[in-house]
Amino acid sequence: MNVLSLFDGMSCGQIALNKLGIEYDRYFACEIDKFAMQVTQHNYPLTEQLGSVTDLDTSELPKIDLLIGGSPCQSFSNLGNGKGFDGKSSLFWEYVRILKETKPKYFLLENVVMKKEWQAIITEAMGVEPIKMNSRNVSAQNRPRLFWTNIPITQPEDLKIFVKDIVDTEVEDKYYLSDLAIAKVQRSKFGREYATLDTEKVRTLTAGYYKIPGDGVYFQDHKGKRRYTPTECERLQTVPEGYTEICSNSQRWKMLGNGWTVDLIANIFKNIN
Questions:
Q1: Residues 236 and 139 sit within 8 Å (Cβ to Cβ)
Q2: How far is CA 68 from CA 181, 234, 268, in A?
Q3: Which of 12, 30, 73, 233 is catalytic?
Q4: Is 73 part of the annotated catalytic residue set?
Q5: C-alpha to C-alpha distance for 106 and 5, rounded to whole angstroms
Q6: What is the SS3 string spanning the chain?
Q7: Going by C-beta distance under 8 Å and a sequence separation of 6 or more, which residues neighbour residue 239?
Q8: Which residues are paired to 109 by β-bridges?
Q9: How many Å apart are CA 34 and CA 10, to the nearest integer?
Q10: Which residues of 42-79 are buried (b: 16+ CB within 10 A; e: fewer)?
Q11: d(C-alpha 215, C-alpha 209), whole Å
Q12: For the segment 134-181, what is each residue's pLDDT rounded down to a tens digit?
């Protein structure tokens, strides 16, 4: 089986395939973020990086059996700029182009929950209705997403994983927020209540988590209010611990916020035959 991954950053799709023991011959990736590419090559050195999706000539590829991707969501997200297909999310059409050219046996497209009119355009182009799934069933994160795919999908069992299951009891002081940072969070449009050990699920991580005030996903323990550490964020995304550790914390937070929840993708891939 040959796999082509578009916009999958640090290769969460490849993690899911390996977690299931699904064998593949070649794994191609279209990505331009150098840090995400470094993480992928560190963990999966046989990955064949193809550069920007806009430059991809599919005639140079072998037969693709599985096409996967999560086209940019910034213009579709309610936290984004609202430009829809006029913004970065217009790269969705590159996915459609490549889907038509490669004609894979299986395809999977992921994106955020969005306006119905945008969803309808994607649905018409993909030829299948989206299925809404939430990472909360397989992780401690509330992360609703839409999936357009021809792989049979069953909703994952609720594993009842909560905040208390992913946080460390002691972390370095650098993860705690100063009074100034706390004030910025409270003033921000992304301001959120702080999770505690008794809170069931963490709000959705985004790529902006490396910033302050970031996306407002924070934790409160016995010492104060703090960010989730990169390792805790790996747990929230069900990424193997240490998978992103070759990069700085800022880059780890960014790529984890951009990434997929691995166990949710694995729940879909388990129906590949």
A1: yes
A2: 38, 21, 11
A3: 73
A4: yes
A5: 12
A6: CEEEEECCCCCHHHHHHHHHCCCCCEEEEECCCHHHHHHHHHHCCCCEECCCHHHCCHHHCCCCCEEEECCCCCCCCCCCCCCHHHCHHHHHHHHHHHHHHHCCCEEEEEEECCCHHHHHHHHHHHCCCCEEEEHHHCCCECCEEEEEECCCCCCCCCCCCCHHHCCCCCCCHHHECCHHHHHHHHHCCCCCCCECCCCCCECCCCHHHHCCCCCCCEEEECCEEEECCHHHHHHHCCCCCCCCCCCCHHHHHHHHHHCCCHHHHHHHHCCCC
A7: 10, 12, 15, 256, 259, 262
A8: 69, 148
A9: 10
A10: ebeeebeebeebeebeeeebeebbbbbbbbbbbbbbee
A11: 5
A12: 999 999 999 999 999 999 999 999 999 999 999 999 999 999 999 888
pLDDT in tens, 195-251: 666 678 998 898 888 887 667 788 888 899 899 999 999 999 999 999 999 999 999
Give CA angle at 29 (26, 33), nearest 5°.
Answer: 150
To which residue do tokens 């140079």 refer?
60
d(CA 196, CA 128): 40
For the entire predicted model, the pTM comes to 0.92
Contacts of residue 118, defined as CB under 8 A and 6 or more positions apart, other chains included, come to 76, 84, 85
Sign of CA dihedral 257, 266, 240, 220: positive
Write the single-letter amino acid at 20: L
Give bridge partners of residue 144 from the DSSP assignment. Answer: 134
- Other Cβ atoms within 10 Å of 241 Cβ, number: 11
Q: 6 has which bridge partners?
A: 30, 69
Place of tokens 């990086």: 49
Phi, psi for 175 (deg, rounded to 5):
-85, -10
Q: What's the half-sphere exposure (Cβ side, CA atoms, 13 Å) at 107?
A: 19
